[in-house]
Every structure is written in structure tokens, then in C-alpha cells.
Task: structure prediction
Amino acid sequence: MSGSSLPGLLLRLRGSALALVVANLVPVYGVLALGWQIGPIMIFYWAENLVVGFFNILKMARAQGAVSDSRTTLNGKPVTMDSRRALILFFALHYGGFTLGHGIFVFVLFNPDWKNMPAQLGLALLFLSASHGYSYWRNYIGRGEYLGIPFTRLFWQPYARVIVMHLVILAGGSLAAAMGSPLGALLVLVGLKTLIDLGAHGLERRKFLAAANA
Result:
């Protein structure tokens, strides 16, 4: 698996990759059919933080990978069920604070339509939960990724993906907003985010499967 190319891996994972693409097409529908500007799109992408955090908690709770040496301990203490619960709780608080801060930044910078935001947020959570939920069921559980990954390694797992992706999105969103949110700029932003998402998805699957096969 370690020698597999990213395109080849995505081809084998075409079910979860397709679900990811479909979820990322929702903003395209929003732009073309609902008249979304940059605000709703940024709210949609911010909502993915919530979904990613939720499923990472599920992954941490289910992970059964063997840990050794430094990975067996937390602050020099052996890992127990209580320490697992404590780390999951700490992750929820830590990641929740990060998501809240990111949300405040997005809301202040892009000034979304508060009247329509509940519907937009609900649509985002529905499709993103379906996409990430399918990947969790198909890859993490179905392909046995949970058997190889230690739960302690999952604490920082979402941050690399989320931070890189949203730095690009914030830069692209700010540029689109400065241009008056033209249709072309919005579609380019959606396409760029989808490509980044597919790459991150494939890399995550490759890392998890390598751990499962080790």
C-alpha cells in the first residue's frame, strides 16, 4: 500500500471519493440555483469543521491500534479507558474552541445572511454528514482502518487537513469577495476546495491503511 499512487488509491476508494465530490457540489447548486454569494459558501465550509470533529471523536472511541513506547503513555502514564475518555473530552474542548474561533472569524469577515443561515447550515450538515459518515463506515470500519491506528494519534489528525484547507478557502473567499463574488470566482473556489479535499482524503486513507497493514 505504501507504494500506491494517490490517483490509484482514490480509484479504489471511488465510493467515498464520489460521496465527497457530491457533498462539495452542493455549493455549486447553491450558487447556480439559489443565488449563493460568498457568505453561504463559507458557512457551508465552516460547518465541515463540526462534522470532521464529530467523526474524529467516533474514530478515537473505536480505534484499536496497538501503541508502544511513547505512544503507550500520556504524560508518562499508561493508557487506560479513563485516559482514552479524558483525551476524547480534551479533544472535544480543544477542537471546539478552534472551531468557535474560526467561526467567529468567518462570520465577521464574510457577514452571512442571518435570516437564511439556518437553512444553509442545515443543508451543509446534511450532505457533509452523509459524505463523512459513508467514509467512516466504508473505510474506517469496513476496511479495518480502526484496527491499526492508535487513538492517541487521532488527536491532531483533523487539524492538518482542516487548517491547510481553510487557509486556502479563506484566501480564495477573500479574493472572491473583493471581486464582488463573480460566478467564475465562486466556481473556481469550489473546484479548488474539492481538489484539496480529494487529495487530503486519499492521503488520510493511505496513512490509515498503512497503519492497519503494519
About this structure: Residues 69-73 have pLDDT under 50 and may be disordered.
